[in-house]
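HUMAN: Ready with one sample?

ASSISTANT:
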Amino acid sequence: MRIDVLTLFPEMFHGVFSASIVGKALNKGTAVINTINFRDYSTNKHHTVDDTPYGGGSGMVLKPEPIFAAVESLVGEGGESSDVEKAAARIILLCPQGERFTQAKALELSQASHLIFICGHYEGYDERIREHLITDEISVGDFVLTGGEIPAMAVIDSVIRLLPGVLGNEESALSDSFSDGLLEYPQYTRPAEFRGWTVPEVLRNGNHREIEEWRRRQSLLRTAKRRPDLLQEATLSDKERRWLQEELITKPR
C-alpha cells in the first residue's frame, strides 16, 4: 500500500511512523508512507496556503491551488501515475464534518492500493476541495483538533494493522472491538490468581466450545452495558438475544 500525507507539518509524523507496528510494516515494505508539505506547491512569492474567507468571518481558509497541485502531482494532471492508479487512489480529507471513522471504514480502506490524506489547519478548507477533489471525508470523533495530522495518524495506524502479514497473528484483528459490530470480550493471562482475583474457570478448562460461547456472551453483555447503540445494527441470533436478556435481568446495568 502506498500512503501519501499532505501536511504543513511533516515532522509530526516521523516518530509515529518509525515505531511499533507501523514502523515494522514500513521496514518490511508492506506499506510505503510519504509526507508532502503542500506549502511547496504554493505559487506566490510568500508561499502562503491560506487566505481570509469570502463574506467575512474569523480565521483563515486553506486555498485550493496548493492542495489541488499537490494531489495532481501524485495522481493526475501532470503526475506520472497510470490511469488505473489514478482511479484507485482514495483521496481523504480529515475534517470534523466528515463521516465518522469506524472499523468497517478501516477495513474498506485497507483494500485500497493508494491512500492520500489531506491534513488541514486554520478555519477550514475552500469548499471546492471537498466538491471537486476528494473521494472521502473522515472525522475521528465529535470534537475539534488543531489540525488533521493526529486524525491522519490514527486512521493510518488502524488501516496498516489490517494489511496481510502486519500482525503476528492474522486472527488478532478478527476479534478486535467493532470487527463484528460489538465490543471485544474480556481478556486474561497468567497468573491464574492475582491479589485474590481469579481468571474465570471456563477459560482454564480447555473446552473450546464453552470458551467461544462465554466470549460471545461477554462481548454481547459488554456492548449492551457500554455501547448499547451498537446493538441496534448488530445481527444477533434468537439464542443470543435470549442470552442478552438473561444477563441483563440477572446482572442489570
User: Anything to note?
Assistant: DSSP finds ten helices and ten strands in the chain.
